[in-house]
Amino acid sequence: MNLNNTTVLGTGILGSQIIFQTAYHGLPVVGYDISDEALAAAAQRLDLLVQRYADFFDGGDRTKAQAARDSIRLSSDLADAVKDADLVIEAVPEALAIKQDTYERLAKVAPAHSVFATNSSTLLPSMIAPHTGRPDKFLALHYANEVWKNNTGEVMGTAQTGEEAYEAVVDFAERTGLVAIRVLKEQPGYVLNSLLVPFLQAASGLLVNGVADAPTIDKTWKIATGAPKGPFEIYDIVGLNTAYNISSMGDETNKKFAQLLKTEYIDKGKLGQATGEGFYKYN
């Protein structure tokens, strides 16, 4: 099983990075989203990634990164987007109902040989597998944000995932510049977010309970541990929509934080680094 032609469903912050990472490493890739408006926003994200990749890999030379950008095709027609797909990577919003509906529609139009991989940050793939129509060819491939430098690819199957599909996704991860992390059993949050999410939730709890403001919490963590970023800087990188979706499924403190995110940030268009403002302002 050789996974070359790739389609990424969802062209948000991380979806766009997955698309660009795949193209930069020489594989054909199509980005799908639900509307031409969403694709226009995706095109802008992809254009900005050209310089990020050029600076990180090529000393500022844009030749290879621009060629990768030029190779990417975008589509708002699901059947068109997946017609040649060996691998479909799903990066739609972190809401179970949305993901389940996406896979039910995908199963009707994708080629029979296509492998499906979810990039869900917190949901177990077994919660989605019955909706895929091919549980033996379904598993999780989880990317970290700023994937070009934070290049882990966590591969996690279900009890129904076939060994051939699992190994093919490990191989795909490695061919697209990732360090493949074999997660040996289903775990909400894989390895990375099992460590990261409790850390971020501890910070949001300090904020909503009035213990300290966001800059103070970030400053404390960075000075005391030598970490390059504090939790609220990480929230801005991840995106406040994602933070909202995850927090709204938690306990009362998490839901209080979700409400804060919605009223003070998301409803005002402050979604994090991608929009130029979240907990902090960005150029």
TrEMBL record:
The UniProt entry's GO biological process terms, in alphabetical order, are: fatty acid beta-oxidation
A GO MF label: (3S)-3-hydroxyacyl-CoA dehydrogenase (NAD+) activity
| Oxidoreductase listed as a keyword | yes
Query: Reaction catalysed by this chain?
Result: a (3S)-3-hydroxyacyl-CoA + NAD(+) = a 3-oxoacyl-CoA + NADH + H(+)
Q: Which UniProt keywords apply?
A: Fatty acid metabolism, Lipid metabolism, NAD, Oxidoreductase
Site features described as Important for catalytic activity, chain residue numbers: H142
Q: Where is the 3-hydroxyacyl-CoA dehydrogenase C-terminal domain?
A: 189-282
Tell me the pathway.
Lipid metabolism; butanoate metabolism; Lipid metabolism; fatty acid beta-oxidation
**Where's the 3-hydroxyacyl-CoA dehydrogenase NAD binding domain?**
6-186
In terms of NCBIfam families, this protein maps to: PRK08293.1 (NF006143)
Please state what the protein is called: 3-hydroxybutyryl-CoA dehydrogenase
Which species is the source of this protein? Glutamicibacter uratoxydans
